[in-house]
Every structure is written in structure tokens, then in C-alpha cells.
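Inputs:
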Amino acid sequence: MKLVLAGAQHFHMYHLLDYVQETGKAVFAGVYDDDRNVLQEISDKYGVPKYDDLDEMLQTCQPDVVACFAKPSTRGKVIAKCLGAGVSVLADKPPVLNLEELHDLKKVVSGMSGPKFTVLLSERYNPPVRTLKRIVDDGEIGDIVNFTAFRPHKMKKSERPDWFFRRQDYGGILVDLAIHDVDIFHWITGRKILEVTAHAGNFTVPEYPEFEDNGQIIFRADGGVTGLIKVDWLAPSAHPTHGDCRYFITGTKGTIEVKTGGDIGTTGGTITVCTETKPPYSVTLDRVESDLYGDFFAAIKDNAEPAISMKDVFEAMQVVLAARDAADDNCIISLE
Amino acid sequence: MKLVLAGAQHFHMYHLLDYVQETGKAVFAGVYDDDRNVLQEISDKYGVPKYDDLDEMLQTCQPDVVACFAKPSTRGKVIAKCLGAGVSVLADKPPVLNLEELHDLKKVVSGMSGPKFTVLLSERYNPPVRTLKRIVDDGEIGDIVNFTAFRPHKMKKSERPDWFFRRQDYGGILVDLAIHDVDIFHWITGRKILEVTAHAGNFTVPEYPEFEDNGQIIFRADGGVTGLIKVDWLAPSAHPTHGDCRYFITGTKGTIEVKTGGDIGTTGGTITVCTETKPPYSVTLDRVESDLYGDFFAAIKDNAEPAISMKDVFEAMQVVLAARDAADDNCIISLE
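Outputs:
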């Protein structure tokens, strides 16, 4: 499996590149970015050829898979170009920043069966989230009534690139962070979100008035299931993880609280379940035998749909884009 | 202090009556209810005269204070009548069930300076909530950005009267339960809620289709502060308290999580704070020297405004009634 990097603007890429080096499951064969400093840094660090032209890299390297960690505002185009060229793509989230880009991407992949596409919705492989899904699937808490997610992250202001603070380049907090929780809701419940309302605001970064350090979404899904998602860049610096992320699931026969830890590669987490017959008890986390990257490489080899499918990605994107619009326009948006 | 009971339909009344007996801070002098069985039961249990006419009780007993635990749908009229007769009233929440009753009550008290009125918003005296307010007031977490409240309670279906399951008599879950959290938000932050959206639904009581076993509110307050409130009657029977109620406060400089326990008179609870400089630490709960009943009796004696003022009660009612309408009509309601 030959892998190249198209855009190297988010630290999430190190997790993948280190994985590739450690497991040998792919060969890192080239890097493209339009920022010469970034390009030089990655090229030096991993000893791979650098390209300042995407087409040239695709043609020269003939990769099996492109990993896209481009600036969010350029991701959509990069992904569409790679998929259009018949190469599979693993992209950081969010893969696009607006409905137009989403539409363009859908057009590119329409009817396509060769190249595979997935997005780094890493919570799907987080042991506490995996365990949560298993407990829900086991019927332990009955039917799901409400799904609440908290996703606070540390801002680490001084380490962030300029684009992080600009709406046009970054896309906004609801699109960047809430996509995880929307996807997990869809995955855990099998329900489709039908309607969203949201807010976003900025309390701590006055020098970038477009930036949002906090946001919240309320939604209604099919079957009358409801949910709340709270995201922010206000996790206190002293917190031991990247943020005290949680899920709270209310079922007809019990409740589950999940502490998931912070970000990609975070270990730890806890699950507490309470039911009609059992007072709160902790559940040992399931071992997760597979991983997102390995599963995706296997899907490419097997010409199979990735575990986090295009449909999953597009549905989650649709919801977070609607949430951002709802916050901007202060309205309820229907997705039916 | 002579106290009578006008309406004896909610078990919260036992907390007050026991308090009165134990402390001797008031003399329980009579009970009125339109249900003869209920009347007989309380009269026998506490050895007080029973009345099936409210006016007759007021005239005969000449009370200093009326405690109103009438069926929610009749509370508004009972409270208005007592206040109109110049007698102070301590009512269970919610004191009214619609805007018309709220308007009528406001009209009765307009310009009134003698009789006092308060509502059993008991969380104000709950040690963890009191401690939360002190920590916020101390500036430990900076300015408040987001306020999230969970209020799950046990349904105890077999112990509930019929009216509990009918919207017309009960008022709905958002009005009954969320009033606590709206009031605590106002109290903790000093912010006014300007806009609400909400949902409510019923998963577990199909025989009463009007009943709601769960609800959620999203709101925006002045200064751009936002919040989420989740309420339900789905706390698992096996949970050690009446429900795992929580507050999560996100500030510009830290976060606070509060576990408050279940209902009036619940003891226990915990507070965890995390700031920019201190990893998560537990705070010893403040001792609460005063209590809601004692403070209210003192306010009557001193002709002073009760700690939970009429204005506080009316503002919280306005928000929860708007939330119920927002849920019913699937819209955003402005309170500006």
C-alpha cells in the first residue's frame, strides 16, 4: 500500500504517519503542500520526496491512497481531485466546509466504485465509544430516548496556524468538532437527524472576531429521539487530557455515561451504566482489535465499502453544515 | 407563625409539614383540599382541622402563611385568592401552568407590599448548588460561557396521581422540572434568558399520550451566554437517588461539574472544578446555615422580599412556558 500526504496542515497527520512507520502497513511515498516550510519539514522528518504540485505527486508516486490534511478550506478540492483521479482518500475532518463543496464531492463519487473514501472520525475506534455501542446494541438500556455529547478541547492558541481562527479557512466550531458526535449518534442509534438549531460564539479570542470558542446544537431525529451537543475550545489548560469529552445516553430502561478522553490516540475512558435493576456500575472497556487506518487499507485492497462509509460522512456533514447555518441565521433547519 | 395547607396533592408537602413539626417555627393550623380522602388523611396524620372550602379556612384560621400543594392546574387560582386576601403564600412549583394564569397572578400582586410569595425552588438551598454559586461568584472560572443542566427523576408511575399524566392538569415536563434549572441559571449568572427552543416526548407511557417522559431546552441569554437543559422521568429505578442531577458550567477560565442529588431534602452531592492552572479538584461543600422555609417565614415577619422573589419566580415561569410553547409549535421563541 503506497500512501502520499496531500496537505500537511493539521497535527492529526502525525498519528497516521507514525502508525504507517510503526506497522509497515503502508509505505509513505511523498508529500504535497503549498506551504514550502511545511513541505520541507515533513520531507525532512520522514525522508520522503516533496511536491508543490498535487497532480505531479499523483502522477509520479502512483499512490494507492492519499491522506489529506490540507487546510480545511482546500480539503474539498484536494479530495475531489484525488478521487476523480481514481485514488482512494483518507481525509481529516471536516472534509468540506460548505454545501457547494459537499455537492461537488458527491458529484465526483456518484457511481464511482473504485477509489474508497473515508474521514478521520476517530471516535468510532475509541474503546469507550466502541463499548458504548456494544452495550446499546445488547439492549441493556432499552430504546434510546436522548443522546447528549460534550466535546471540550484545549485551544492551545499559540500552537495554532492563522487559518484556525478564520471562518473562511476553518469552517467554524460546529462543523469541525460536532461532526464526531453527529456521526456517533447516527452510528449508535441508527437514527437520522431531521432538524437542528444551534448557537456559536466567541468569549476569549477578541482579536479574531470570526472565531468561535464555543457552540451548542439541539436536534430531533426520527422516532422522536432528541439530542444535545456541546463543543468548545475552552478545556482548561490544566486538564489531564485534551478535554473531558462525554456521552450521556438516556434509554427507556437505563442510562449510560461515557468519559472518552481527548483526541485521536487518547487512551483511557470509563463507562458507567445504570438500569432499572442495577445501580450504577462500571463496565470494563472492550478491546478494539482493529483500527481506522488498517480497516481503510483493507477496504481499499478488498474493494469494499469502508467502515465509516461515504454515506456516513455525507450525512454527518449535512447535519453540521445545517447546524452552522442555524446558528448563523438563528433558525431551525429541517433536514427532511 | 400560623400556617395552613391549601391543596395537598404533592408529596413535597410532607417535607414542609415535617419541618414545621420538628422546628416549631410555625403552627400547622388547618388543611383544605377538594378531595375528601386526601383531606381526611392529612387531617388525621397531623391532627389539624380540615376544610373543603378555601375561603372558610382562611377566615376561620386567619393564617400568616398558606402552603399551596394543590394540583398544578388549580394552583394559580388558589395562590391568587390567598395573596388577594392578604395572606402570604409558599407554593410548590410550578405555581401556574399558562401565560393567562401568570398574567392574573401578576395583576393580583401588582403594587402589593403586604403578603409575600415564594415558590419551592429548593435547589437554591441545596449545598452543592450553593457552593457552585460561591465558586462562580469568587471568579474561579472567569466569565460563564455555557450552562448545562440535567434533571432526570424517577417516574414512580404507580405512586403518581392521575393528574400527573394529563397535560391540562400537570402542565408538562418542561414547565414542571426545567423551572429549577432556569431559576438556577438566572441566579448563578445574573443573565436573562432571551430565546428558547425545546422538544418534549413520550417513550414509555403510551396509555397517557399527553404525558412527556423527556424534554430538552436550548437557550441564548444576554451577553451571548448559552445553555442546555435536559429533563426526564426516566431515571432508572435502581439509581441510589431520585435522579443523577448535574450542572456543567463552562467559564472563560475553567469548568465546574456539580452532582446535586435528587429532590428536596436530598443530601450529598459533589463539585469538581478545573481551571487553567489547577487540574480537576473536589471542593468541600459549603454548609448552608439557612433554609427556604425559615427564610420565607423571616421575610414575612420582617416585611422583606423573600430570597426567591416574585420577580425571580415570574421570570423563570416566563421561560419555561415559552419553552413548552416552542416544543409544542416547533419554533424558536424570543423573550426580549
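Remarks. Chain A has a mean pLDDT of 96. Chain A touches chain B through 50 residues (CB under 8 Å).
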